Amino acid sequence: MSLLFSLYEPLFRKAPGSDRSTRQALLLTGSPRPSKIIEFGCGSGAATLVLAASTETAVTAVDIHQSFLADLKRRAARAGFSGRIRTCRADMAAPPFPDGSFNLVWSEGAIYLMGFESGLKRWRRLLRPGGCVAVSEVTWLCTNPPLAAADYWAAGYPAMTTIQSNLATLRSCGFDPLGHFTLPPEDWSENFYRPLEERLRHFRTEHATDPDAQTLADEEEREIELWRNHGDSYGYVFYVGRAC
Ligand SMILES: C[S@@+](CC[C@H](N)C(=O)[O-])C[C@H]1O[C@@H](n2cnc3c(N)ncnc32)[C@H](O)[C@@H]1O
After folding, report:
1. Measured in whole angstroms, how far is the alpha carbon of residue 90 from the centre of its chain?
2. Does the pLDDT of residue 33 top 90, yes or no?
3. Which of the listed residues 48, 69, 92 should we mutate to test ligand 1's pocket, taking the one with most ligand atoms within 8 A of CB?
4. pTM (2 decimals)?
5. Fewer CB in 10 Å around end: N or C, the chain?
């Protein structure tokens, strides 16, 4: 894990996404100015800063890794959001907040760490009546993916499923779906994989004699190559729902 954290530390975005997609999902909530937001797996705050700028409200940003949170704090201060962005080091599987504390639960590229259903179930109680959830989740975009993609994700995230199946899960976890959309290719290529590839070149040099680091870099490059070859068969989908 520490090698993975060190690989991602200098990267602002640690998953596919964009300011535009964050704003698009916020619009789908139908409540552009929610009064209290919690974000899980915030990393360095790629989405947190957009939420703060777009809503002018308080955002609690939760992550397990302290140095990502420190990076977010610095960025929030530079953007003039110190008073509204509160960072919290905690396990998103057991959030230390009372029921009904928030009216928007947000998470980009992180719910897969618990599984889509488990994450939705654990976070549902945090919402006030009528509150919303907005999460991006890696999703099959076809029913018969190419073997290379199927094998890769069967090993990495066997619970990955289709849009229809995730919408059914959203409903079964107590949410009315308000909308969903697939992140555009540039959210992967320009915003995530291009900086990651550059970082990987430095990372390989920094850890030239560490076989574990080289293996990690190989794995990351394999993931990028898979997306280039088969990225039309899977993608990140933003799901937005209202607690019912
Ligand atoms: C793929 S990154 C996405 C980060 C950020 N949302 C973004 O798009 O840049 C997943 C994030 O989840 C955090 N994380 C992993 N396990 C966690 C846990 N159990 N509780 C809270 N955060 C966790 C990682 O430290 C990392 O910042």
Report:
1. 16
2. no
3. 92
4. 0.97
5. N
